[in-house]
Structures are given as structure tokens and as C-alpha cells.
Amino acid sequence: MKVRILFFTALILLIPGICISQNYDIIIKGGHLIDPKNKIDGVMDLAIKDKKIALVAKTIDEKEGKRIINAKGLYVTPGIIDAHVHVYFGNNMDQGLMDGPNSIQADAFSFRAGVTTMVDVGSAGYRTFPKFKETSIDGSQTRILALINIAGEGMRGGPFEQTTKDMISRRAVEVAKKYPDIVVGFKLAHYSGHEWGPVDSLMAAGKMASLPVMVDFGGATPPLSLEELLLRKFRPGDIFTHAYAYFPDTRESVIDENGKVKPYIFEAQKRGIKFDVGHGGGSFRWKVAVPSIQQGFYADVISTDLHTGSMNGGMKDMANTMSKFLALGLPLQDVINRSTWQAALMINRPELGNLSVGTEADVAVFSISKGDYGFIDIGTDKLKGTQKLVAELTIRAGKIVWDLNGMAANEFKKF
Predict the structure, then answer these.
(1) What global pTM score does this model have?
(2) In this predicted model, what pLDDT tens digit does every residue of 254-276 receive, in sequence order?
(3) Which single residue of 25, 67, 281, 331 could bond 310 by disulfide (Cβ 3.0 to 4.6 Å)?
(4) Best CA proximity match to 317, nearest among 295, 338, 302, 333
(5) Domains, in order of start, for the chain
């Protein structure tokens, strides 16, 4: 009798259409899925198998999953891309953001905000990038991409970021070509001279490597012309960061003295120039952001400029920065778009920032907390809001890496 039962069991398993195995590693059920690339905005189920998105559908049978996560009442999004961070952390106290104490360790601050990909923007230069890769990128669970600083040492501070003789386009391009899976562009930051030489070196690198460049204007006196940079130096796809900063004496703002967005800003955006928030510890002011949004100037990508000088100030983290744009009146779908798909396009990584079947399973699940909140810009002004995004669950490459309230855990049963 036992032999006969085993025979029929084996026969059933071989019959097409009859399967008692569990096809998916994880099924997220009942969440409101927002995937801007695929124009999905509604309640859907999502299944993950072998580290990949396996299925997105109205309903997926729970019996098909090894682990079921109930996301009813929550928002399911692609893993968030923070396109402006500094994660070349180290113990060299005099080296700032380059292998120094002002950068942060990526995994410690990414997943808790729903972030699965970070883009380090210029912490390392062409000379220091190999060590950055070894010490900060290779062992990270967070996906880390990078812009190479045109300054050889990177963001080491002081004279290292001002030495034009060390801004060698060819050397930067060599690093980019050696590490094409990591390097997504080039960066110029903090240069304070009133001359275009460093920008020209940066542009030369971008053209040679066919990669975008990012400029963070330094503190030149008088300021260099923002119109000249955007309309005559930049190519479509190049990036101006700190879009809502206000340093009237040393850096041109996107608004004039009357709070009006300068016409050439809209012209540049129509040409395909990208604008990055890059909040930081001193580069986001409500006096710029509020009138800009009211007049229809929206930064293409929301990002934090995460480092030790910003994470304990008004910026805090990516989820808080995204919440600020809800307070500014942007719809949630737009906030998610500028934190996922638009960021992926800006860095030319269309395989990221979406939930297409077959892509690596980077997923974030958010709740929206309702209340009376105050959002600080760089520590001087507060804008009130009623909503705050909270990262409940983060999945990186199919693995649960953050679970705030145990929504993916088994219920503990007392003895």
C-alpha cells in the first residue's frame, strides 16, 4: 500500500499543471504599487524569485510563495536611488569626505530609508578611487555607483580641490573605463576660483568617456555665470546639483532677487540639462524651493547629499527629504518618480529604479504617517506638513535588509 501511494504521488508531480511546490521566494500582497517606468499606480501583488522580480499581477496565489508579506495599506515602490551621497568613509581626520570622517558607511544609512542604490558624487578622484572601491564599495550590500572627481585626490578639502594642475581629464577617463560597472560620470566640486578651466577639464572628461558630468559651484567671488554653465558649457544630460541652494555672494541662485525663477533655468531644463536637489547641510532653502515649485521649476531628481554634516541637520535621510516634497505639494507618485526612475535615467542605469519582471529585486515598502510635522531646510526655517514617509521594509537583491515593524517576520507564539 505504501509503495502504491508513493507511486501515485510521484505521478501527480509529473502531470503538467499540477504543482504543489512554492514557485516564489517572496510574495508582497495587497500593497499600492507605484512603478513610474511601467506606469503602474494601484493595488497589485509582487513576487520575487532568485533575487529577481518574477511577477507583478492583480492577484498572486499565496500558496505560490515561501514567504508572504501583507502590504495592505502600504506603498510598494522600486528601491530608492539616492543619487547624491558621500560614502568614502575613513579614519583620516584631516581628509574630509575622501577616506575621512565626514563621509558615512553606506549600509548604516541606506536601507532604513528605503534606499537600495547610492551614487557617491566625487568623494574620490582618479587617484584615490581604487582604495575607495576596495574599502567602501566592494563589501557593501548597498549598491554603490560613483562619479569620479576631476581633482585627482577627490574631496580631500583645502588645496587638494583647488589645484588645477591635478585636474587631468585623461586620468579620470582611464578610471571610468576601467570600472564601467561602477562609474557613471564625473564631478567638479568646491572650486573657488573665478575661471572656467576646471569646468573645461570636467567637460573634456565627459566628452571623452561619453558620460554625464555634475557641477557643484564653489565659492567664487564674484560668482561664475550660471547661465554660461547651463547654456554654453553643459550638454543635454549634464547635471547641476544643489538646485535649491542660496549663496547670493558666491554662487548664483536659480531665482532672482524678487524670488522669480530665472528664464534660462527653464530653457536649460528644456534642453535636457538635469537638476539635482542635493539637499546637504547647507544647500536647501525654503526661500528658493517654495517659489521654484510654485512657478513650475521642479528638480529632476530628489537626493540627500548625505554626509555627517547633513544627516543630523535639516536633511536627516532620504525618506525625510522625499517627505519635504510632499509638503511642497508634489503628489506621492511624482516624489517616487524623482527618487527612482528619473534618478536611474540621470545616471544612465535604466535597469534600476523600476519593478519590471526580470530586474534585480530592489523594493521599498512605505507607510505614510499623518500628523503635524515641521520640516527644516538647513536649520533656519521650517515648513509645516501633514505627511511623512516611513520606510517599513527594504529588499535588496531579493533579500530583506530592513524590516521596521517585523512585517516579514513570523508571529511569536508563547509557550
Answers:
(1) 0.94
(2) 999 999 999 999 999 999 999 99
(3) 281
(4) 302
(5) 80-346 (3.20.20.140)
